[in-house]
Amino acid sequence: MNTADGANTTKTDKAAEKRRLLRVLAGERLWPPPVWMMRQAGRYLPEYRATRAQAGSFLDLCYAPELATEVTLQPIRRFGFDAAILFSDILVVPDALGQKVWFVEGEGPRLDPIDLAKPDLEPHRLLTRLEPVIETVSRIRAELPDETTLLGFCGAPWTLLTYMIAGRGTPDQMPARRAALTDPSGVDRLVDMLVDASIAYLAAQLRAGADAVQIFDTWAGVLDDAGFRRFVIEPTRRIVEGVRAQIPGARIIGFPKGAGGHLPAFVAETGVDAVGIDWQASLDFIRDNVQPLVPVQGNLDPLHMVTGGEMLDAAIDRILDRLGEGRLIFNLGHGITPDGSIENVARMVARVRGAGGR
Ligand code: CP3
């Protein structure tokens, strides 16, 4: 940031005013709403597959600033989204903490499962190992159009530890849920480390030029009420507080997937500036109980990116109709899948941007 240089600060502020998504995060209602897509840089794009092949392994791509910048920009060039999201993965944090992480082609992530009693992690190494990712953030900002908001991100502690404990993705996150019941203080210690790591990592991204950051809690929905408070709300609240202690006014989006009826408490207690909504959510519930508190982001079923047609148009219109009176960032309810079609993505962007009325 250029706070020491008056002329530069003014220029930066002017550029930031053009970022419509950032204006919604600051509380404005804009029409048509800004639009971007989770996993917008990914395998449904031929240009992504080409760069990915050049990089070697998936993690190599995450740690190669030039190539990671290129794949971040690809969906912006093609669709002109209102936001770019740093290309990386939530699992670079366990990797940088010293847990072995690798990706098996066609299957997903693998990790050497952690021993909760003796975690053997190296939190002091975190930021050194994540330097290439931080460099990617500054490179992306330098190349993005002024009007495009740049989002950084991290995985929330609960979601990270579901992978760190199981050593892989699981259908029901059973190993982590068991650990939360059999060794809650062991899980708390891991959460503490991940809270500190997330604060340091997000603050570094914001300093490097991210306009806002999103905290992905993909598996928030599998916990009971007490678990949700202890392992989702409380760690997220501490991350928000810790990041803002370093970067006052930092803009933060929470995405506790599957949170359902917990959403109003999540928003009120964590202090996030906006919240991501998955596609299972009740739109009336969100409009009445969440949108009055903060802007909401979502929530088209990503399957519409595969199936398209009039059902896609109707689903878009329904979201615009139910949530359009309030503060909205249009997005999918989770990431686009590799079988999503470019034509359907273009159709979605055009329909949201062409939305009349209101
Ligand atoms: O949104 C974006 O475009 C930014 C990049 C991004 C990726 N992963 C790239 C990626 C982000 C924000 C993530 C987050 C992420 N990663 C989450 C939370 C959000 C979510 O989607 O639930 C999780 C749980 C992960 C862990 C992860 N990474 C899994 C389970 C997988 C394998 C599944 C799959 O799609 O193959 C990944 C790999 C991954 N992360 C890919 C991409 C583009 C595909 C890997 C490839 O190119 O071979």
Describe this structure in words.
The chain is of the alpha/beta class and 358 residues long. It has one domain (3-27, 42-299): TIM Barrel (Alpha-Beta Barrel), CATH 3.20.20.210. It contains 17 helices and 9 strands. Strand 6 (252-256), helix 13 (263-270) and strand 7 form a beta-alpha-beta unit. The longest helix is centred in the middle third of the chain and has 24 residues, at 184-207. It is globular, with a radius of gyration of 19 Å. 47% of the residues are buried. The structure holds coproporphyrinogen III. Residues 38-43, 52, 58, 85, 87, 89-91, 108-109, 153, 155, 159, 169, 216, 218, 335 line the site of coproporphyrinogen III (CP3).
Quick structural summary:
The protein is α/β, with parallel strands linked by helices and 358 residues long. It contains 17 helices and nine strands. The strands form two sheets. The chain has a seven-stranded parallel β-sheet with strand order 1-4-5-6-7-8-9. Strands 2-3 form a two-stranded antiparallel sheet.
How are the elements arranged and paired?
Blueprint: H1 6-17, H2 20-25, H3 46-55, H4 58-62, H5 65-79, E1 83-85, H6 92-96, E2 101-104, E3 108-111, H7 126-129, H8 131-143, E4 149-155, H9 157-166, H10 174-182, H11 184-207, E5 212-217, H12 225-246, E6 252-256, H13 263-270, E7 274-277, H14 283-289, E8 296-300, H15 304-307, H16 309-323, E9 328-332, H17 342-353
Parallel strand pairs: 1-4, 4-5, 5-6, 6-7, 7-8, 8-9
Antiparallel strand pairs: 2-3
Helix pairs in contact: 3-5, 5-8, 9-10, 9-11, 10-11, 11-12, 12-13, 16-17
The structure holds coproporphyrinogen III.
